[in-house]
Design a protein that fits this description.
Helix 5 packs across helix 9. The chain folds into 3 domains: 105 residues, no CATH class; 48 residues; 93 residues, Chitinase A, domain 3, CATH 3.10.50.40. A hairpin with a 2-residue loop joins strand 5 and strand 6. The protein is an alpha+beta fold. Helix content is 53%, strand content 15%.
């Protein structure tokens, strides 16, 4: 999911250890007044909205604790202003960053609201990814090195009977798989970068890539250990993820366009 507006919930922590004797005082359009300053109902509503997004219930007890937390926050904030802490350079920077974050999140939410994705667009993306992934998945190992000459030497050693797992543990630049002897587990080829995926699909069980395969990560010596049929998850199952990915792509493009138009010195 895209990030929702983040509210600093320090008040909820404070509420557990600091109690303000507020009774049931309410003000017109607000939940309480602290030294003549009204705390608007909208603050409580926003906290309740954030809570609901996290799956927490809206109960009288929750409302009471949040109200007390907001009162405690107001008391402390007023005291901080009396001390002139709001003029501190670091505090000012923090406030500026929080304001920017709120505006960025508002922009993102507004874009999503005004540019809903159609069912047709989601289904087209599903079919595109389905075709890319294919109907098979492969269990493969690889050894990643920086240059072609070293990769070719490794192929030669493996053909002479060297143990793949051992060389992977010694030589591979892929920190995620070298400890497992280069084992990548089961995966559809569409989940790999194109040169790797195309080479993998051409291998027969037990076969090595010869010559090695180059990608943006370096040179790969790949061995296919096994293959099996792969059933793509249904559209409804992956629909939320598709929506998230397409929204992210659209927002990234909008942000990229804004940066391109901006005068940045």
């Amino acid at each position: 999911m895209l990030n929702k507006t983040k509210i600093p919930l320090l008040a909820l922590v404070l509420a557990g250890s600091l109690t303000v004797a507020t009774g049931n005082a309410q003000t017109a359009g607000g939940i309480a007044r602290v030294n003549g300053v009204s705390i608007p109902q909208s603050r409580l509503d926003l906290l309740l909205k954030v809570n609901a997004a996290q799956g927490q219930p809206d109960t009288p007890d929750v409302r009471s604790r949040m109200r007390d937390a907001l009162i405690t926050r107001e008391v402390i904030s007023q005291e901080a202003i009396k001390k002139g802490l709001h003029k501190n350079a670091e505090v000012t920077s923090q406030l500026d960053l929080q304001r920017q974050e709120a505006l960025v999140n508002a922009f993102v939410q507004d874009y999503i609201k005004n540019h809903p994705l159609s069912e047709d667009a989601l289904r087209k993306e599903y079919e595109r990814q389905k075709a890319q992934i294919g109907d098979k998945e492969y269990k493969a190992r690889h050894i990643l090195v920086k240059d072609e000459a070293e990769a070719k030497q490794i192929v030669a050693r493996l053909k002479e009977g060297a143990i793949f797992d051992k060389i992977a543990a010694e030589k591979s630049e892929d920190q995620g798989s070298k400890a497992q002897g280069g084992d990548l587990g089961w995966s559809a080829p569409g989940r790999y970068v194109p040169p790797f995926a195309e080479a993998l699909k051409k291998l027969k069980k037990g076969q090595l890539t010869d010559p090695p395969v180059q990608t943006q990560f370096g040179w790969h010596v790949i061995r296919l250990d096994d293959e099996r049929p792969f059933k793509t998850p249904g559209f409804e199952e992956v629909k939320p993820q598709l929506q998230q990915n397409l929204q992210r792509q659209a927002i990234d493009k909008v942000i990229g366009d804004l940066r391109a138009k901006a005068k940045i010195d």
